[in-house]
Amino acid sequence: MKKLFLAILAVLCIASVITVMTLQKRGDRPAIVWSASLCQERVDQVEAFHKWLRENGYVDKDGELLFTVQLENASSQSTLIQAVSGMAGDLIDYVPVKRFAPMGVLEDITDYADKEGLDPGSNYGSARDLLMYQDRQYAYPCNLAAYGLVCNVDLFRKYGMNPPPEEWTPDQFESIGKEFVRRANEGKPRQEVFFSGAMPGVIQQIARSAGVDVFNETLTAPQLTDKRFADALKRYHRWVADLHLIPTNAEIASENTDASSVNHQPTPQLVSGRYAMIMTGRYVNMDLRRFKADPVNLSFVQPPEYGFKNLLLSSRNTAIYKGSKHKDLAKIFLRFLASREYNEIIIRSSDGLPPNPKWAGNNPEYLNPPGWENEGNLHKNELEWARTIGIPDSLSPYYPLADSKIDDSYGRVASGLSSAEEALAIGNQAIGHALKETVDGTASLRENYKRDCELQKKIDEYKAAGKKIPAAWVLNPFYLKYYQEAGLLTEE
Fold this sequence. Notes:
Shape: globular
Number of helices: 21
Oligomer: single chain
Helix content: 40-55%
Radius of gyration: 25 Å
């Protein structure tokens, strides 16, 4: 026994020496830190990056990588605290550029992005606003999403109906929805099937389709008191409370959700036939593919809207921390995000839209994933609509909360506390108050805010006079696209 113990001790000593020597050998090799959520997808992406580095010659004479990436678990809020205190990782994930850039914590990558093809022009047109602040680029996307309605085609066929058209109006939504709910619940003691899962976000999309947005053209003031917002909120409330096309909060709370969703989406209800459709994007397949034994045939359609078609476009961005000691190495990681290798990971996993659309446009692996023929037009439609009618949220640099108050306003109406007009007025006042406090308390914003308010006065004067507005004056991505398509802009 004594000899066995000594033998084990000797082996451990030798192993310790080898470990120390290995660490010393690698001690000069830098490791850049990627502050992101810890999940299997991020681990796989880091491994793919290391492989990409090796394949692209980022190795020393011994074949060792010149640097590596380490994952560090962080949320958007904790990352901001770390960045402001000077303790953030080299790469920051989930970056809301309009919130972080004014604080001076992000590295300006405009020149590098132009040189390496990482500029917004190589991405999705309207996604430019998600990456930029004051015409300078500070981030590159890891993936994107354009939110529409994913429909359970089998459920519509079960009740003798065709799936919804790719474009439809709120009136058509009501008409088709009423007939679907009637057929699906006929003869049942209580309603079991709904036309759609909850989607209060459609209130903004309906209002936008009528020509108004949460903020004005220069993002200096909210506009929730516009009648078009009240009309959109009333319409959505009618779908829930009067027509029962959409479940109430109480009905949602009572549902059995044992089959949990990775992306916090009501995918179990879509698959089980309780909901005919849900508001989501291509990333929903990360959940739906778990039901491979009984796949659901899908279609992807636009939300019900009026004349100006739009989808909410979002992106998960990664940026370089201003205080990083390895900025040049971190820039290489951004190039990896635009590479074929990284984009193929996103394409295969269906983890949203790939950041560089050139790897998806004519790619059958993206458009018609082998083995997933049931996913129908989801991939094709989301990519096309993201590049044509996708518009980001109007995020004001003077309102860092990034909360439109639309959900809060609907909650007040649904609870019977306020009328639509009263609830939206409360939300409008809350945004205005927070905006003023932010500007008053942030010296670096005051001059820009004053300038943009003067610009808004000029825009209002031009609109009143029926004159075209210089495109450079319009800072809200919604109005930039809306006015452009209406022929109301000039480049002068």
